[in-house]
Design a protein that fits this description.
This protein is mainly alpha-helical and 139 residues long. It contains six helices and two strands. The longest helix is centred in the first third of the chain and has 29 residues, at 7-35. It is elongated and about 55 Å long. The chain starts with 6 loop residues before the first helix and ends in an 8-residue tail after the last strand.
């Protein structure tokens, strides 16, 4: 199966979702500071361990349950398996952790080198991004 979502639409969706993820991290930081007697967290590893599961949960639940994150919804595409069904939690875990590597640029270069136009994280998680077009005739 070949993905029909362009590189620029992927980047648009990623940008949208990064703003949302930044908001999650900012909110979590506020809660942690309140719990920590209004003192900032000085251990970045602890903060990473607290925020990573929340960020993963946002992406995983969005992909598995609704086939879209908010960024994907804004750019009108969804994530599917080859048969058109929802992806699994295992696929979402593979995709999430490999997408972190892809953000360094390597994974998206891979998109231009394979026939199905899949970046590194979609290729190895066996997921596909497909454009959603609502038909105007349904009114």
């Amino acid at each position: 199966m070949k993905s029909n979502v362009s590189f620029f639409r992927r980047i648009g969706s990623i940008s949208y979702d990064l703003f949302l993820v930044f908001s999650f991290v900012f909110f979590i930081a506020g809660i942690i500071i309140l719990i920590n007697n209004k003192e900032p967290i000085t251990n970045p590893f602890f903060f990473f361990l607290v925020t990573l599961p929340v960020i993963y949960s946002y992406f995983s639940i969005s992909w598995v349950k609704g086939k879209q994150t908010l960024g994907m919804r804004a750019w009108k595409f969804e994530i599917i398996q080859e048969d058109g069904g929802n992806i699994t939690y295992w696929q979402s875990a593979i995709r999430f952790f490999l997408a972190i590597i892809s953000l360094a640029g390597i994974g998206f270069i891979f998109q231009f080198l394979n026939k199905n136009k899949l970046p590194f994280h979609d290729y190895y998680s066996q997921t596909y991004l497909m454009t959603i077009y609502k038909e105007l005739d349904e009114q």
